[in-house]
Task: structure prediction
Amino acid sequence: MQKYLSVKTQAAGMVHINRQTAHMFWEEENLDPVLRQYAKKYLVQEGFVEQALGVLNPEPNYGVDPSLDEMSKQV
Result:
């Protein structure tokens, strides 16, 4: 298994996320702190951190939720 998940962002360049600790580091060393914070928020919101840690289920569940099925019968 790879040690890092690498993501190329438009604003911050290449960002590496440690798969065990979710620690992020950038290839560009002199990056503006505002861009770093923007990249962190983007990676969290888009699910890259969860993917790196392995807690994001990549396969969609196409099964019907029984409670939703029962609710549609009551209408």
